[in-house]
Structures are given as structure tokens and as C-alpha cells.
# Entry
Amino acid sequence: MAPRALLCALLALVLSLVPGADALDGGDAVALLIGVVIAVLGFCACLGWYDFMPRPRRDRRRKREEQDERRPT
# Structure
């Protein structure tokens, strides 16, 4: 059995052992919505942080080479 299939089977077994909720009231719905909003905001924040990370050295080297080409010799 492939590792991925084994992992899926194990996950399905574990989730089948968890008892379901008897009732869902308003407080549970609000908590769920707040959790989803926080998760989405966290994901977007991580994407934004990744966008502002420094570029790889290759880009820095290329920028330096362009500056050297513009500089009169």
C-alpha cells in the first residue's frame, strides 16, 4: 500500500472514532465563523509576508551588473 493511501486510511479511521456534535447552537456557529475568518486572514498575511521577503541573490547580482554597465569607465 502506498504511503499516501495508508495515511488517508489512517486518517479516515481516526476521524470515524470522533463522536459527532449533538447540536449546533448560535455560539458554535459564531465560533466557527470567527475561526474561519482568522484562518483566512492568517493565510493572506503569510502570503503578504512572503511577497515582501528579500529576493534571491541572483536578482541582487543582476541588479549590480546592470549598475556596473551604466557606470562610465
Summary: The radius of gyration is 25 Å. The chain has three helices and no strands. The first helix runs from residue 3 to 17.
